[in-house]
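Suppose you are handed a protein chain with no further information: no name, no annotation, nothing but its sequence. What can you learn? This example shows the usual starting point.
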Amino acid sequence: MSRRPAGASPPESTAAPSGDRILTLPNLISFIRLLGVPLFLYLLLVRRADVAAVVVLAIGGTTDWVDGWIARRLQQVSRLGELLDPLADRLYILATLLAFTAREVVPWQFTAALLVRELLLLGSLGVLRRYGYGPPPVHYVGKTATFLLLAAFPVLLLAHATSAATATVAGAVGWGLAWWGLVLYWVAGALYVVQATRLVRSVRAGSAGVPA
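A reasonable first move is to predict its three-dimensional structure. Written in structure tokens, the prediction is:
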């Protein structure tokens, strides 16, 4: 997490530093991933084209790591990219959960468990912003959880849309990934809350030690 002191002036150079670049290949990939969210919802809920929805969801999930890998490989890491990547992940997860619940692919209890975690994290982010801090850096546990969930969703949809023999195998694989993803998602959420709590306590302790 970073915090810019109040009143700090921008650098005199007019050239944008690499962290502020917008038109980069990783950012383009993230934008395309974002466009895949409404396309997936349209295919699944309006057209009921489950196979096409599986393809869109699989592409969106498997490219989760591509933008970050390219950004590091080409040295195109940017602040926008750091925000777009987790935003695309969360939109895919939330949109998929709501659509899957509407189509009865997953039970509402599973969706509720993930949504409660998101609400907990939003509360922590709100507290951090009150103290002038942005979102915490993405933890590898959270990235692993996101990968498992994004891998589980197309498999679960495949199990829902195919014959009984295929559905049995796909369902077992999909739910194995989904439950591990759910557990790690909550573990990552707890780590973020602990990190935010420690930061707020240190800020309060520092403020209490400053003479009036």
